Amino acid sequence: MNYRLIALDVDGTLLNDNHELTPRVAAAVREAARQGAEIVICTGRGSTSALGVLRELGLQGTMITHNGASIVDSETREVIHDTAISHELARRYMSFLQERGIHFDLNTAFDLFVEEMNEEAAAMYEHLLAQPIRRSFAQALPEPLVKMSIYAPKSVLDTVEIEWHSWTHELQTIRSGDYFIDVQHPKASKGQALRWLAEQRGIARESILAMGNYYNDMEMLEYAGRGVAMDNSPAEVKAAADEVTVSNNEDGVAVILERLVQTAQ
C-alpha cells in the first residue's frame, strides 16, 4: 500500500450527479480501507450529513467537514479540531443576505440552523441528508459557529461575488459549488485541515492521496502527495492536480483506486 491516508471529497467526486454512491466506487473505497489506508471524508458538507455517506461505505473514523472548519470523529461525535468565527463578523454577511432575500444557514460542527426555508432549499437539504433546525437569528447565534452556507441559483451567486469583490473581508468566502458560497474562518480549508491531521498522525505528504472536483478542493489537491481531479472539475482545479481522471458519473474515484491502490498490493 503506497498511501496511508486517502482524502475524498463527496459531492461531484465520491458521489455521482444523482447523489449516489455507486457499487463500483463503494467497493474500491472499502478495498483501499481493507488494505490499510485511512479513508478520510473531506467535504464542504456538515458533519451530520457526511456521517450518512461514511456509514453507506460501511466505514468509520475521522472526517474533515465544513471545508476544513471542523475535524470530527464519526463514532464518538467528538470535535477534534475546529476554527470558529465570531458572531459580529458573521452578522455583516447575514444582513447583506437578509436584505436581498437570499437563503443561508448557520453551522456548528454537527448542527445546521435556518431561520426560514423555501421548497428549493428543503429539497437541497434532503439530497444532502441534512436536517435543518429552525431558529430565530434575531438574538443569540449558534455557538461555536464554524460556517455560513449560502444557497441560491448560480446567477444570483455570481452577482453576490461581484458585489463582494469590493469588500474588505475579515472572513473567507469560497465558492464550494455552482449553487453554494461558504463563509468561514480565513484559516479554514480542506488543505489546512488535511495538513493538521497528517501531522497529528505522523503521515508524510507523499503518503497521502486526495481526490476532488471543485475550487474548495484545490489546496487539498496541491498538499497531497498525489492530487487527483475529476474530469467534471473546472480548469483551474484540474491545473492544481497531479492527474485528472474520468468524471464522477464514470466512477472516477474507483478508476484511480483500482489502479493506484489495488494494483500496489
TrEMBL record:
<dbReference type="GO" id="GO:0016791">
    <property type="term" value="F:phosphatase activity"/>
</dbReference>
<dbReference type="Pfam" id="PF08282">
    <property type="entry name" value="Hydrolase_3"/>
</dbReference>
<dbReference type="GO" id="GO:0005829">
    <property type="term" value="C:cytosol"/>
</dbReference>
<protein>
    <recommendedName>
        <fullName>Cof subfamily protein (Haloacid dehalogenase superfamily)/HAD superfamily hydrolase (TIGR01484 family)</fullName>
    </recommendedName>
</protein>
<dbReference type="InterPro" id="IPR023214">
    <property type="entry name" value="HAD_sf"/>
</dbReference>
<dbReference type="InterPro" id="IPR036412">
    <property type="entry name" value="HAD-like_sf"/>
</dbReference>
<dbReference type="GO" id="GO:0000287">
    <property type="term" value="F:magnesium ion binding"/>
</dbReference>
<dbReference type="InterPro" id="IPR006379">
    <property type="entry name" value="HAD-SF_hydro_IIB"/>
</dbReference>
<dbReference type="InterPro" id="IPR000150">
    <property type="entry name" value="Cof"/>
</dbReference>
